[in-house]
Design brief:
Radius of gyration: 15 Å
Distance between the termini: 31 Å
Number of helices: 2
């Protein structure tokens, strides 16, 4: 195996329930993750009981180009 070309250093802080803040390289502000829509419904969250945020799945799909 060759040398490691890049190692991502990420810090994730759980705030409450499904809400997390991630500090990502090259981003000045933390990224907030949580749940919304059908994903929230899947996990049994009632509408109006949480503030919607993008999920980690949304971020992965966005990173792969859509």
């Amino acid at each position: 195996m060759g040398d490691v070309a890049y190692r991502s250093e990420i810090v994730i802080e759980r705030l409450a329930g499904s809400v997390r803040k991630a500090r990502l390289p090259a981003e000045a502000e933390p990224v907030t993750y949580g749940t919304h829509g059908a994903v929230a419904q899947h996990y049994g969250r009632a509408p109006g009981t949480f503030e919607p945020h993008a999920t980690t799945l949304d971020h992965v799909i966005g990173a792969t180009g859509g």
